[in-house]
Amino acid sequence: MSVTTVPIRPIAKGSLTKYWVGIALVLIAAGALAWFGTSDVRSKYQSNEAFLASNGKTSGVETTKSGLQFQTIRAGEGKSPTDTDVTLIAYKGTLRDGTVFDQNEQAPLPVNGVVPGFSEALKKMQKGGKYKVWIPSALGYGPDDRTNPQTGEVIMPGDSVLIFEIELKDFISQEEFQKGMAQMREQQEAAQKAGGGAGAGAGASQGIPPEIQAQLEAQMRGQQAQ
């Protein structure tokens, strides 16, 4: 169940945009930061306020004015992303009891397309860095339980503190990202008109790794069949 809009090994500069586009078409379509089954932690632990107050005293943990808590595990280099960028990250999200609710090794994620706490954290990171963040519910998904629409089961307790380990692998501007996606769609359409089929638009010339290329081709075949 996707609740948000939610990078890569070094590659040649000329193929960067095309590579991002291939990753994005696979991963954005699948959704990001999806909620999986979780246990209700509210009756088992101290209050969120007490937890965050204690965690904020941990060496290396910075508490920002908004209440976000941020720790640098490994420093990165260069500039930080802005609201107009799309990041490429590896992340793992857990609840206070250690329940993993989502994780991904390479996810394209727009800075301005996620919950406020996650967005704020991304803008404090640098390329190549690894970080840990604690997002209070007010900066996350708020006080209401999130339930499975089919079963009614609570899959995310309200007022959950979200804990993420995040590695910022790369980032590009949204303008460059959208331009690359448009170019790839044009290539796909041209290949289909020429009788090359959906897979021809995602060939090796796009600079996409074989495993990602296979996923992309399968997705495009599925879209074409609909």
Present the secondary structure layout.
Blueprint: H1 16-30, H2 48-55, E1 61-63, E2 69-74, E3 85-94, E4 100-110, H3 116-122, E5 130-135, E6 146-147, E7 154-156, E8 162-173, H4 174-193, H5 210-225
Antiparallel strand pairs: 1-2, 2-5, 3-4, 3-8, 5-8, 6-7
Helix pairs in contact: 1-4, 1-5
What does this entry look like structurally?
With 226 residues, the chain is an alpha+beta fold. The protein has a domain at 34-172: Roll (Chitinase A, domain 3), CATH 3.10.50. It has five helices and eight strands, in the order ααββββαββββαα. The radius of gyration is 19 Å and the shape is globular. Keywords: Isomerase, Membrane, Rotamase, Transmembrane, Transmembrane helix. GO terms for molecular function: peptidyl-prolyl cis-trans isomerase activity. Belongs to the FKBP-type PPIase family. Residues 181-193 have a biased composition (Low complexity).
Describe what is shown at a glance:
It is built from 5 helices and 8 strands, in the order H-H-E-E-E-E-H-E-E-E-E-H-H. With 226 residues, the chain is of the alpha+beta class.
Order of strands, main sheet, comes to 1-2-5-8-3-4
Radius of gyration over all CA atoms, rounded: 19 Å
Kindly identify the CATH topology of the domain at 34-172. Chitinase A, domain 3
Structural class: alpha+beta
Count of distinct strands: 8
Keywords:
226 residues, alpha+beta, Chitinase A, domain 3, two-stranded antiparallel ribbon, 5 helices, 8 strands, 29% helix, globular, transmembrane helix
